[in-house]
Design a protein that fits this description.
The complex is a heterodimer.
Chain A: H1 2-24, E1 33-40, H2 50-65, E2 73-80, H3 85-98, E3 103-105, H4 110-123, E4 127-128, H5 153-167, E5 173-178, H6 181-194, H7 198-201, E6 202-208, H8 216-224, E7 229-233, H9 236-248, E8 254-257, H10 264-271, E9 280-283, H11 297-309, H12 318-337, H13 343-350, E10 379-386, E11 389-398
Parallel strand pairs in A: 1-2, 1-3, 3-4, 5-6, 5-7, 7-8
Antiparallel strand pairs in A: 9-10, 10-11
Helix pairs in contact in A: 2-12, 3-4, 5-6, 9-10, 12-13
Chain B: E1 23-24, E2 27-28, H1 29-50, H2 53-79, H3 86-104, H4 112-130, H5 135-154, H6 159-162, E3 168-169, H7 177-187, H8 193-216, H9 219-229, H10 231-236, H11 241-267, E4 269-270, H12 277-290, H13 295-319, H14 330-344, H15 348-362
Antiparallel strand pairs in B: 1-2, 3-4
Helix pairs in contact in B: 1-8, 2-8, 2-11, 2-12, 2-13, 3-4, 3-5, 3-11, 4-11, 8-11, 9-11, 12-13, 12-15, 13-14
Classes of the chains: A alpha/beta, B mainly alpha.
């Protein structure tokens, strides 16, 4: 009788233990597959971003054909949300509750991710490496299931502030910024970086609405304020206007151009190379159109993958390099997670990337996260416009703004 | 009127609703409609007992979109005024609820009626100047409204209320304790948030639908239809067309606005991007496909608005082997359905049903 009891107890214990082992893995994870969800604007006003979703999918195709991650194939379910927050809620709930994905990866857009921010954290489903530069995604205390990837806008502002403090400590800065969360994040970053000196160094702030036709009068105001440094926080159309207007006014301040608009093809060449000589900007990814990288191994690997897995992709589109890089970051985190693919462990491993070099980042830049640091990339390199291209200079600069700022 | 002055001398056929003479499979049409309504009502009640989670959330959204489409149907189908700007009233309703909850701490269930009032007034006021505009011009004026809405919501001067580009995150609408208690005592489990959200939405939607049903079958409803059919003769009959047209705009905005309120409560989040022109087009297409001059059509329209992106996704996944990256077909699918509807069933799904009913009733 006693033996029977012991047997039954141990059998029960075994059953419980086995159940626990099975329950550890996230839904959507089997011995052969990991199901990953994604929302992207394949239709609607922001459809230009859809090359990110497509290149991430093509990148997983490559890993799958090479045997998958730890022997598991990646089933990447990428659906259209048209950049519409209510649609994101529907699609994300469908992915989580009906498709039973293990987690959602690289969902794109600030308003769209905001719409499911609370839902994902309540459900405790990782909302990993969201594709937006807003600063709010790195808040592990309040939102432990959400993490960004790209350096946030504030960190870039910090980098410019350090540069100005180091080279022109008496500068008088005039700011032109777009009146929304993106513009304000940049201004906030610069102020943070300048610290106590922000009050005295910033002599002029001019904002504009994205619907304004031009920013000419704002530029005139900034020039008349006596500023000798121009912090240009604008989207491509306005950036080109600002470069041209400065030239027209023969005003040649130290021009800090935000990375949102430092594309040679769509901004600088449109404004005219001669008008923008000497401008300063920042970057963290290799620009695939830059001839400097043609002989780099990571460029060659990217190029070969584009040819084989994403032949309709545009090689001049930096989003394809972005997708390639972020996809590798996720694979790295999953490899670290090994066979313990619970949602907790996936999140813990995403928050445990140490000096990981994601391909196509600028040389010297690495991905670093910890349980309290949910900002994977926080480094930049400055560059100066010379001739018809950007010339990078100086060291890799850390722009970390710390969590919750 | 002449035939009724002598009591009791009314010829029977004049006293009869013309619909009563339509017999479908031995059942008079009005009875059939009523039975249909009760069946739908029963379905609305039964659904949350069967479904939970994402499924019931989807049904709730269908009812929410039904109200939005219904608002447009009342205006366009019953009163003959066009609007491409109903996303604006949807936004007014949603933001009224959100601001009341967020700034004033009003419980979610108490925001519906004030939000409805705000939307009625907004619609009525917009309807006044719109009286001078006919057809195409009215469509253009409302189009401007739809385009301006997301921009206005981002405006810095009111950003402390609207949350600007960041939008507003709302509290979860928990069920009142007494309802939780009742459900607990019957089923023994706690009522899930998704089920409660659906029940709340359904309650509001059913009341609103009944209101619309009574409205279009009343004197006012007949006046609205008369204005649509022939404004001049409606006027000669003594109908104050400007008041009725403005009121129709107000009521229409109120329906779509209440849908917006329910949307805010259901999604617990709203941002200017949720209220773009695309949303107004959705309502319009939903209305046309369902049958713009039909209340039942709005139910189909609500379902259609929600499901069409899913159909597009389905089409995308089935085309995957033939075309590279076929996602993002939503717009195309909308277009195809719209063209199909206009050519094949110009009265929408409701019109198609009517034709079928007619075919069956005359076959005897």
């Amino acid at each position: 009788m006693k033996l029977l009891t012991t047997t039954m107890v141990s059998a029960a214990a075994l059953a419980v233990a086995m159940g626990a082992a099975e329950a550890r893995n996230a839904p959507g994870v089997t011995a052969k597959e990991i199901k990953i969800g994604n929302t992207n604007p394949y239709s609607g006003p922001a459809a230009a971003y859809s090359s990110i979703g497509k290149s991430v999918g093509a990148c997983f195709d490559k890993f799958n054909s090479e045997g998958g991650v730890n022997g598991r194939q990646i089933n990447f379910i990428s659906v259209d949300d048209g950049y519409s927050p209510p649609r994101t809620v529907e699609q994300t709930r469908k992915l989580v509750e009906r498709e039973k994905v293990a987690f959602v990866f690289q969902a794109l857009g600030t308003p769209t991710n905001s719409a499911v921010h609370t839902y994902m954290n309540k459900k405790q489903v990782p909302q990993l490496f969201v594709a937006t530069g807003a600063t709010k995604w790195g808040d592990p205390k309040n939102f432990p299931w959400t993490m960004g990837w790209q350096p946030n806008y504030q960190s870039e502002g910090v980098v410019y502030a350090r540069y100005v403090l180091a080279t022109q400590p008496t500068a008088k800065i005039g700011i032109l910024y777009q009146n929304d969360d993106y513009g304000k994040d940049y201004v906030h970053g610069l102020e943070n970086g300048l610290g106590d000196k922000a009050g005295s160094m910033i002599v002029s702030r001019e904002s504009f609405e994205v619907t304004d036709p031009t920013i000419d009068s704002q530029i005139v105001n900034i020039k008349n304020s006596g500023a000798d440094t121009f912090y240009n926080v604008t989207t491509p159309k306005f950036a080109a206007q600002a470069i041209a207007k400065n030239f027209e006014l023969s005003w040649a301040p130290l021009h800090l151009l935000n990375s949102v608009s430092n594309s040679i093809g769509s901004v600088v060449s449109k404004a005219g190379f001669e008008k923008g000589q000497g401008m300063i900007s920042a970057a963290y990814l290799m620009d695939p159109t830059d001839p400097e990288w043609k002989s780099h191994d990571e460029y060659k690997a990217w190029n070969a993958w584009m040819d084989e897995y994403y032949p309709d992709g545009d090689k001049a589109d930096s989003f394809t390099a972005y997708g390639w890089s972020v996809c590798h970051t996720l694979v790295k985190a999953l490899e670290q997670a090994g066979d313990d693919l619970s949602r907790e462990n996936i999140m813990a491993q995403a928050a445990n990337l140490k000096n990981y070099r994601a391909p196509m980042l600028l040389p010297g830049i690495t991905v670093n996260t910890s349980a309290t640091d949910f900002y994977p990339i926080e480094q930049w390199q400055l560059m100066r416009l010379k001739g018809e291209g950007w010339e990078r200079f100086g060291d890799i600069i850390d722009g970390s703004v710390g969590s919750g700022s | 009127m002449a035939s009724t002055d002598v009591a009791g001398n009314v010829p029977a056929f004049l006293n009869q609703n013309p619909k009563d003479r339509i017999i479908v499979l031995g059942v008079p049409l009005p009875l059939l409609e009523r039975v249909g309504l009760y069946v739908l009502l029963a379905a609305v009640v039964v659904l949350p007992m069967v479904y939970d989670g994402y499924d019931i959330y989807e049904f709730g959204k269908i009812l929410m979109y039904m109200l939005a489409v219904l608002g447009l149907n009342l205006l366009t189908g019953f009163n003959g005024q066009f609007s491409l700007g109903h996303s604006a009233f949807f936004a007014v309703g949603a933001y009224s609820t959100a601001i009341m909850m967020d700034q004033l701490g009003v419980p979610y269930w108490a925001t519906i009626i004030p939000a409805a009032a705000v939307c009625f007034v907004a619609g009525f006021l917009f309807g006044l100047p719109a009286l001078r505009l006919d057809g195409l011009f009215l469509a253009l004026a409302t189009f401007a409204l739809a385009i301006a809405t997301p921009q206005l919501l981002k405006y810095d001067g009111i950003a402390h209320l609207t949350g600007g580009v960041q939008g507003i995150v709302l509290d979860t609408p928990y069920p009142p304790a007494w309802i939780d208690g009742i459900v607990m005592s019957i089923t023994g489990e706690e009522l899930s948030i998704d089920r409660w959200k659906y029940m709340f939405t359904a309650l509001v939607a059913v009341i609103m639908f009944a209101g619309a049903w009574n409205l279009v079958h009343s004197r006012t409803g007949r006046a609205l239809i008369a204005i649509r059919d022939n404004p001049l003769s409606a006027k000669t009959m003594g109908i104050n067309t400007s008041v009725f047209k403005s009121a129709a705009f107000g009521v229409s905005a109120m329906y779509t606005g209440v849908a917006g309120s329910l949307f805010a409560i259901m999604d617990e989040y709203l941002a200017p991007e949720s209220f773009t022109f695309a949303e107004a087009i959705k309502f319009l297409v939903g209305g046309v496909v369902g049958g713009i001059a039909s209340l039942f059509g709005a139910i189909f329209g609500g379902w259609f608005v929600l499901e069409i992106p899913n159909i597009a996704d389905l089409a995308a996944s089935s085309l995957e082997n033939y075309i590279n990256n076929p996602q993002g077909l939503t717009g195309l699918i909308y277009g195809l359905f719209l063209i199909f509807t206009v050519y094949v069933m110009p009265m929408g799904a409701a019109g198609l049903a009517q034709i079928l009913v007619h075919k069956i009733s005359t076959r005897r």
